[in-house]
């Protein structure tokens, strides 16, 4: 049974296991520093489909199908899939998973989807409400760019603070037992809005949410950043990462020695033209479900915090002059069940 | 602890309680047959805000705030809010709840949001992962119409099969104990796509999903429709309701004596110009959180199935020629813990 500590944190005493995982990414991601870690690299952005939205659905389904295959179970053994994406009405997930025959819980946490889905699914496993549960999420540079910003053909200039939406997907199968790592603690994020209005600076909009969730986690658990091998954010990028470290320093928390960001890990930011780094819920999903979980498997990581961050605005809310609310959900991953 | 029966159904042995609930609706809804049941009726569609999206956020926040107030707890006692809506990137929920200070799990199940949120939140309560959890969802005729269909100023003709998106919101507070009714069983829905492409006939797109989930529930539990006072769907409307009854008759399940639909209950369909009935996630939410739960309170209902249905398409997927996938999540509500 889980038990709550402090105001925001949930301890999962039976520590649900990551049984298997997989990732599928686009060409640019496959040319980056993590290229040897992905299960599948698609050579073209349309992945042979007639639209970018369909390509994104295909990658999501591909990542999930590979994760299921590696689990050794059939799709019909999976009790639920917790999935979402950035597209309006979550169509990458809905169309990608409509033929898979698994009960579907649709989520929307913007780029925080991977830690949101891991949070909910691990509670289901912990509670014995599911024997096997899947988490999956995706994003696609082209489908996101035209939905949130400009038509690609417009060729708009990108601000130095802007990030590059990752084309990719990641999926995890959770079970009561498995090789791990194991999900041991969860801290759910509140919506935090510090008034940032710049759609080309999502890192700044999301960093305060990450800082809030992390402060709550450290307050609740009385752990210290040095207790972890890595404190991994989703897609704050170079700008948002600096802000997060500064915000936490004001709270007497120094994470500078442990902090990494999936958006920075994904690309060679200086040479791949991605400005502040990668973004999109496929960013943290595909980095977690490749390089990070591989490092656990290879014994190079033993305890990390994974805190994917999301910006909850829409083009409509921004056009109406609204600021950008952020959110961040935190998941503690351990190689050993303590 | 919960336990699974059959392939799709989860029994909640400790039966989480509905502690309190509230609804807030627009003027047209307040002129319908359920007008005496709502907590708040807004006289104008903008509710004093500068946009319909902001009005929807306000109604969502209003319903949730009223439900929290009736619970007797402060917002800071609520461990999580599970919320979502129909707008792109879920902005009605994100902006409506950004100041409330409760950890937020964003959902997207289209019009199935109310049973989706009840499903997830009740597992959290059952598992002791939360002491108090909130569920909230909303829709708004004007924000939905311009997002999914046409500018209101266009004055488009509506097909006879079309439904009228309800302006309204509903919210529930779940707890381990309370006056009830109690949530005793859950059946998660799969995505079902029978190839319906008509954006003006959502009832037809969603009815097969409701039929699939109900068949799974009755197969798993070996219950019969006659065991229930009411089998309540979300917003199939007149057309979708007839289809659901037909589809289930082919499976030797006759629900015609028990079936009601929130979209039909909400309006006087013949005289209020809503064609096939109400729709939108605010429809099932505000009908459940007013008339239906009041009838439980007054001893007029003792056991029902609540099965909200959603259509998972977007304008983009429809423009790309895609059919409309449906989904339906089922919740069993009982006045007494057995």
Give me some keywords for this one.
six-stranded mixed β-sheet, 23% strand, 33% helix, seven-stranded mixed β-sheet, alpha/beta, homodimer, 338 residues
- Largest interface, Cβ cutoff 8 Å: A-B, 63 and 63 residues
Rg of chain A? 18 Å
Span between termini of chain A: 15 Å
Q: Describe the strand arrangement of the main beta sheet of chain A, using strand numbers.
A: 1-2-10-15-14-11-12
Order of helices and strands of chain A: EEEHEHEHEHEHEEEHEHEHEHEHE
Can you count the helices of chain A? 10
User: Which term fits the overall shape of chain A?
Assistant: globular
Mean pLDDT of chain A: 96
β-sheet strand percentage of chain A: 15-25%
Quaternary organisation: homodimer
- Major beta sheet summary of chain A: 7 strands, mixed
Secondary structure: helix percent of chain A: 25-40%
Q: Low-confidence parts of chain A, pLDDT < 50 over ≥5 residues?
A: none
**Count of beta strands of chain A:** 15
Question: In words, what does this structure look like?
Answer:
Two copies of one chain form a homodimer. Chain A is of the alpha/beta class and 338 residues long. Chain A contains ten helices and 15 strands. The first copy, chain A, has a seven-stranded mixed beta sheet, with helices on both faces. In chain A, β5, α3 and β6 form a beta-alpha-beta unit. Chain A is globular, with a radius of gyration of 18 Å. The model of chain A has no long low-confidence stretch (mean pLDDT 96).
Detail the topology: elements first, then pairings.
Two copies of one chain form a homodimer.
Chain A: E1 2-5, E2 9-12, E3 17-25, H1 27-30, E4 40-41, H2 52-71, E5 80-85, H3 91-96, E6 104-106, H4 113-126, E7 132-139, H5 141-148, E8 164-165, E9 168-175, E10 182-187, H6 202-221, E11 230-233, H7 237-249, E12 259-261, H8 262-266, E13 278-279, H9 281-297, E14 303-311, H10 315-319, E15 326-334
Parallel strand pairs in A: 3-4, 5-6, 5-7, 8-13, 11-12, 11-14
Antiparallel strand pairs in A: 1-2, 2-10, 3-9, 7-9, 10-15, 14-15
Helix pairs in contact in A: 6-7
């Amino acid at each position: 049974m889980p038990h709550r500590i402090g105001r925001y944190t949930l301890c999962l005493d039976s520590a649900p296991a990551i049984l298997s995982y997989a990732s599928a990414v686009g060409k640019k991601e496959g040319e980056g520093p993590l290229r040897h870690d992905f299960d599948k690299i698609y050579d073209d952005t349309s992945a042979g489909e007639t639209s970018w939205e369909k390509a994104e659905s295909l990658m999501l389904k591909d990542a999930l199908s590979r994760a299921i295959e590696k689990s050794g179970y059939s799709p019909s053994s999976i009790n639920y899939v917790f999935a979402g994406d950035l597209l309006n009405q979550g169509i990458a997930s809905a169309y990608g998973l409509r033929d898979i025959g698994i009960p579907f819980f649709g989520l929307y946490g913007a780029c925080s989807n991977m830690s949101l889905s891991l949070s909910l699914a691990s509670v289901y496993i912990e509670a014995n409400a599911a024997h096997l549960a899947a988490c999956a999420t995706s994003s696609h540079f082209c489908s996101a760019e035209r939905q949130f910003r400009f038509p690609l053909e417009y060729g708009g200039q990108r601000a130095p603070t802007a990030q590059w939406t990752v084309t990719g997907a990641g999926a995890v199968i959770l079970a009561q037992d498995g090789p791990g790592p194991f999900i041991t603690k969860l801290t759910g994020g509140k919506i935090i809005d510090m008034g940032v209005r710049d759609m080309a600076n999502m890192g700044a909009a999301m960093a305060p949410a990450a800082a809030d969730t992390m402060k709550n986690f450290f307050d609740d658990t009385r752990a210290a950043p040095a207790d972890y091998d890595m404190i991994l954010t989703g897609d704050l990028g170079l700008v948002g990462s600096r802000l997060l470290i500064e915000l936490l320093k004001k709270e007497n928390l120094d994470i500078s020695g442990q902090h990494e960001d999936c958006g920075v890990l994904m690309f060679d930011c200086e040479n791949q033209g991605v400005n502040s780094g990668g973004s999109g819920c496929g960013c943290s999903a595909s980095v977690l479900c490749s390089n990070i979980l591989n490092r656990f498997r290879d014994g190079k990581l033993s305890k990390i915090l994974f805190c994917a961050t999301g910006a909850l605005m829409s083009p409509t809310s921004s056009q109406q002059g609204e600021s950008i609310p952020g959110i961040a959900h935190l998941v503690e991953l351990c190689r050993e069940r303590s």
